[in-house]
């Protein structure tokens, strides 16, 4: 799918290192940590050509194996929480999200299938700021170290 922002569909840009499911092994006491970045191809939205992007910073887990990330949910319920975590959605500028729920649906062939649904701040300059509902459903390359990019010809 890609991104559905309000009623506009955007295609995931897979020809960039700006779209990935990053995984860090943590240490012996902790579980895996992951973060996601999704960059979408340019398209007209509300009268302007935009290339939306989503950045969700490191999420700590207690799981030790990739396959155990499947069906994990992570949720942010307030703009203050998203701002504190520095999770952002880019349309005109990077803005914190109002809320979102992220789910890892599948992991296979070195890729993670994620779904993220929520409310993004579309224009933080307007008073009051404007928001839009979004849904992201896509497969992202799993990156654990710099060498992983070569698997995806990046």
Polypeptide structure, described:
With 154 residues, this protein is mainly beta. The protein has one domain. The chain has one helix at residues 79-85; strands at residues 2-5, 8-10, 20-24, 33-39, 43-45, 48-50, 53-60, 73-76, 88-90, 94-108, 111-123, 130-143. The strands form 2 sheets. A 7-stranded mixed barrel has the order 3-4-7-9-10-11-12. Strands 5-6 form a two-stranded antiparallel sheet. A hairpin with a 2-residue loop joins strand 10 (94-108) and strand 11 (111-123). The radius of gyration is 15 Å and the shape is globular. The two termini are 22 Å apart. 31% of the residues are buried.
How do the strands and helices of this protein lay out in sequence?
Blueprint lengths: L1 E4 L2 E3 L9 E5 L8 E7 L3 E3 L2 E3 L2 E8 L12 E4 L2 H7 L2 E3 L3 E15 L2 E13 L6 E14 L11
Parallel strand pairs: 3-12
Antiparallel strand pairs: 1-2, 1-12, 3-4, 4-7, 5-6, 7-9, 8-10, 9-10, 10-11, 11-12
Summarize the structure.
By secondary structure, the chain is mostly beta strands. It is 5% helix and 53% strand.
Low-confidence stretches: none
Largest sheet: 7 strands, mixed, barrel
Share of β-strand residues? over 45%
Lateral strand order in the biggest sheet: 3-4-7-9-10-11-12
Based on the structure, what is the oligomeric state of the protein chains?
Answer: single chain
Task: Output the helix-strand order.
Answer: EEEEEEEEHEEEE
- Sum up the overall morphology in one term: globular
Global structural class: mainly beta
Number of strands: 12
Total count of helical runs of at least 4 residues: 1
Mean pLDDT equals 94
Number of domain units: 1
Termini Cα gap: 22 Å
Report the C-alpha radius of gyration, rounded.
15 Å
Approximate helicity band: under 10%
